[in-house]
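Troubleshooting: if your tokenizer reports a length mismatch, compare your output against this known-good record of 563 residues.
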Amino acid sequence: MIKINDASQDELIGKIYDSATNPGDWLDLVDAITRFTQPQITAEGFEVHPPAERVQTLVSHLERASRNNEYIHALEDQKQTLNSIYNNMPWPVLMLDVDMRVIDANRAAQEFLTAAAPITLAPNGSLHFQDKALKLDLARVLSMEAGRDTQMLSSPAGKLSLLCTPLAKSDAMGAISTLRAIVWIISNDNKVVPSPDVIQSVFGLTLAEARLLHLLCKEGSLNECANGLQVSIHTVRSQLKSIMAKTNVSSQVELVSQTMGHAFLQAANQQLAVPEESKEQRVILPDGRVLSWFEYGSSKGRPIIVLGALSGGAPYHPPHHAWYCANNLRIINIVRPGYGTSTYKPNMQFAGFTQDIVFLCSHLNLHKPVMAANCVGGTYAMCAAATETQLFERLGVLGSMVPLEHWELDKLDSMHTLFLRIHRASPYLFAMFMRLAQRGMRRAPEKSYDNMVKAFGGSDGIVLRDPIRRARFIKSMTETLYQGNEIVINEYQWLQDDWGVDLTKIAIPTLMWHGEDDPTVSINSARATAAVIPNAVFKSLPGHGKFLVHSVWEEFLTALLEL
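Known-good structure output:
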């Protein structure tokens, strides 16, 4: 048991455990950790670092808080996953209390319970039935009069059935304590059936056979199918025999059941559909990893490889798509390993990504593409240009991070100053804290975003307060951190290390733009980095900060291509 004697230490330990249950409070926590671990300055001006056991005490409590956070995080992820399945399910599903009031309903149920349906939903959450017998049968299920087993209730008049699963009473607080049954609505008139083209593709049928199977799933009768298709019953039976042979089933019931099983997949694909120009593309790298990218603009245009910011964010390309096309540009936005669906690679470092870029250029048959990068993406881009000196035509770096030897540490913003101090006190402590912080961002993105706006302030604060940009950033964080947060932690740590390349080897024309109000990398730091690169043209932008990419991206690309 660790003994706690210092009041400030008690307060900090309390903050650590609060962070496990109060997402979004990570900025306050990092401030407290920094004050606790930073060296004290004596009257003579000497630094006195805290004893190792003091930091170890902090690490021990942070480890315990992290385990608590992992448990809470696992439960929340499980809930989120189940909710996603529930809401995207194409069949109407209801959660009912003992009085037949709707506690919750998925999207399909909300669409089904309209005024024209056999069952409708009143404003107070109660259900109204056209078939009174069906209502009485459901009441028996909810009151447990029908027992605990799953019940199938049918209404021939309403052309529907209810699949009812009674549930044990929960002692938890809230609406869950009133939940008595989950009910699936199976409607003869509103069956979820795969489209004929999906059926044809999945089962390898002719179009005529696919149309028959589609209608059979909806109608259930061969005679009705014959009438609907305006063919003879003999033709329908012959096609059915062919379908059953191709699908390797022995009964009509099995055939319909197998076909209906693809309805959920079709509905999910419709939910996840994205515009053609925004579709993610993938390739398998020589070591078996996946590398993905997005393309915008003209498919035959001048190729520009783009590497984005930390967390794979800005620049956000869809609003620029028409401009790309008008200027005959083909934008290839690479998703770095660890983000999106690009396979995470431990200990890759910035220079290690270069070979992935080389492979993709070969795969896409790109000859001397332009490379443009923003923020941390600029770090990868400079390393690639210094390593593969003949691969690219020119390099553009906008608001980039820079090697540590060029940082003006006294001009860092408060948030990154704290990050750096914690990392120097204990890299292990820094990694643990960052995991807590990243989980907090995922669990409370709105609050975390507001903390970030407050930390940056100035011109960046104005940019980040835009509501459209705010919503876009939060959505992007969810999509890009699909594989978790480890890559973000790695990139922060790699920025504290030597990049392992010689920037003087960059031989291609290079354009560097940097905001004079950048609170993370000072304008002098950026200028010093540009001075190391031969043939680099540097431009400082007054009134712009770290997020200048949102306002000058098209102007920057124009200048880069004219360099």
